[in-house]
Here is the input.
Amino acid sequence: MNILVWNVQGLGNDWTFRILHDYVQQYIPPLVFLSETFSSKSHMECLRVKLGYTGILTWEREGRSGGLCLFWSDDINVQLLSGSKGHIDVMITSHDSTCWCFTGLYGNPDISLRTQFWSMLKRLGDSSSMPWLCGGDLNEILFCHEKQGGAERAHYLMSYFREAINHYGLADFGFRSPKFTWNRGKKACLIQERLDRMLGNTGWLDLFPNSLVHHLNLRGSDHHPLLVELLWANEFSNFGKIWKRGRFHFEEAWVDEVECSNIIKDNWNSNLTGNLDGVAEKLRLCTTDLEKWNLESFRRLKMQVREVKVAFDRIDKNLSSYNWKEHQHLEKALDALRYKEERYWKQRSKDMWLKCGDRNSKFFHQKASARKSKNSITGLLDNNEKWCEEEKDMAHIITSYFETLFSSSSPSSIDLNRVLDTIERKETPQLNDQLE
Here is the structure.
C-alpha cells in the first residue's frame, strides 16, 4: 500500500493536476493527502472524480491561501477524528481489519504561531494509543544540516520541533533521495530545506517495520511529493521495478492507419514461397515491420517523454545551484510533452475518453475490465455436454478438441473420391504443366 503526501501549492491549473494525475496513475496510492490546495470544496470534489477516488475530506482555503484535502479509494475505510486548517486526523481500517491513525499535517508558516502547531501535535498524540503515522509539510527542520543556502535557521525553532516529536516517541524513519524536499530561488541564491517528512510512533513502526519514504521528483511545486510505502515485516519494496517487455500484440488502434495496411500488403505480396515456411517468414517480417513502424510513429512521443524524464530524474536526485536552471527547463519540457500526449490521444479517441474522465477514471477501468471479461474463459462444455470450470478439465477439453481436429480418421479411398467428386475442378492442363 502506498500513501502520497504533497504540498501542491495550488490545484487551480491543469499543469499541477496533470502531474498529480501522473503520480496517482504510476503509484496507485489508496490514500492521498494534499496541502495548500488553494481550492474550494466543490473544485476538489471534481478532482476526486477525475482521479477515480471514492472518498474525500477537505478543509477549505482561507482567502487565497491554505486548503487541505484527503482522498481515499475503496481499498480502505476512513473515519474522521478531527480537523483544522493545519491538520486532518483520521482512523484507517483496511479490509483485513488492521486499524491505525493517520494525520496529514501542514505547519503554520507564521513563526509566531508555530508553538500552537506543536501543541496541537501533542494533543493529537494524547488522544489515541493506536499505531500512528503523521506527516506533510511541517515548515520546519530538525537540524542545521537539513538546510542549504540562505540564512541559518534559529536554534530555538528547531528545538521546539524536536521537543514535540520526542514527547510521544515519534520517529523519522528516513527517506530515499534527494536530500531536500523544498527548493526556492535562482541559481546564484538557491535555498534548499527538508521541510516535508513522515513520522511514526512505536506501534506504527512495529506494524509496518519495512516501510520506506521516497522523495519523488520536484515538479509543479516548490515541494517534493512524499511517497510512503507501507511494508509489513515480510514485504520488500517494488519501487522502481523494471518489467520485461511482453510478446507482440496487434494494436486495435492500428486498423484505421493506412501505413499499417500498406506494411501488411507489402510483406504478404513479397516473393517468398507459399509453403508453411514462407508463411511463417512473412508473419515474422510483418511483425518486425509493424513493431518498427509503431515505435517510430505511435510511440515517438512516449519515448520523448521517457527520455526527458530520465534526464529530469538524474538532475532531481542531485539538485544544486549549478543545475537548478536546467532542472526548471526540463520540468517545463516534461509538462509540455505530457500535455501534447494528452491532446494526441484525445484527437485519436473515437470515444472522446478525456471528456468522459481522465485516463485513471472509472470510465477507463470499466473499458479495460470489460475487455478482460470478454477475453476470459470461465468454463467449457465437454463432449458429454457437461460444464467444466476446473483449469485441468478445461485444459483436457481444449487439448482433446485440437487433437481430434488435426487427426485423420483414415477414411477409405471410396469415401475420399466421393467427396472430391463434388468439388469443381479449377485447374487447367496448361496450369498443371506450369506447376510441374
Notes: The CA atoms of residues 378 and 436 lie 51 Å apart. Confidence is low (pLDDT under 50) at residues 350-354, 356-370. The longest strand covers residues 76-84.
